[in-house]
Prior knowledge:
By secondary structure, this protein is an all-alpha fold. The chain has 8 helices and no strands. The protein has one domain. Pfam families: DUF6090.
Amino acid sequence: MIKFFRHIRQRFISEGKTKKYLLYAIGEIILVVIGILIALQINNWNESRKERLAEQKILKQLHKEYTQNLKQLDEKISMRHKMTHASNVLLNYIDNPKEIEDDSLLYCLFRLSQDPTFDPLENDIIVNGKLRLITNDSISEMLSNWTSDVYQVQEIEDNWQMFRNQNYYPVLIKERLIRNVGAYILNSGYSPEHALDKNDTISFAIHKNNIDLPSIIIENATEIEGVASTCIIYNSVINVQAYALRKRIVRLLKLINKDLNHD
């Protein structure tokens, strides 16, 4: 092809057809420019196609991760509801000690010992600069704010954990309640709500000690009442934040699902 064009140029020059040669040269330049533009367009199309494939891969991973995050968050919300309910039952027992039932009391004491913490999967697309591949601005914004949103929940979780460790466990240890709580939970088998495998059951034979549970509750009413009331306050506030975070996860999953190719 190059030889062909060269031959035409040489023929025009040798025949003295300068005007035709100039027109031909201009045409050739235009063809070259068009060829370059086409090549650039093809290259841009290929790069864009690669980026969209990469975006789809990221979106699929994000959908999987945030589906798991939603599941974990729901488990922690449920645990906090059980904790606040158990705390309310304890307050009722303090007000009406004659109504105390040993097994129910031990269950409530166990629930107050929990500290459900939300520990979501974290994608590194922001750290490694891949956030730019996300073309949906709403998704990008939500991902950018994710760490800050999670912190709003975790901060109060940490405060509850610290309060519980400082004010609740000392009472359980001093009054020899932990042994009976452990016996109640483990003797009949316990399946943790947050276990990776929901079929896992923990069993261990522990003999209860002979302590008068109603008397202990009455003697430590001030401490237990304070812990139960604080548990209700903290975990109710945490769940308010958790529900707000849940709405954002659900919206994010809808946006991601909309942008995913399901071919």
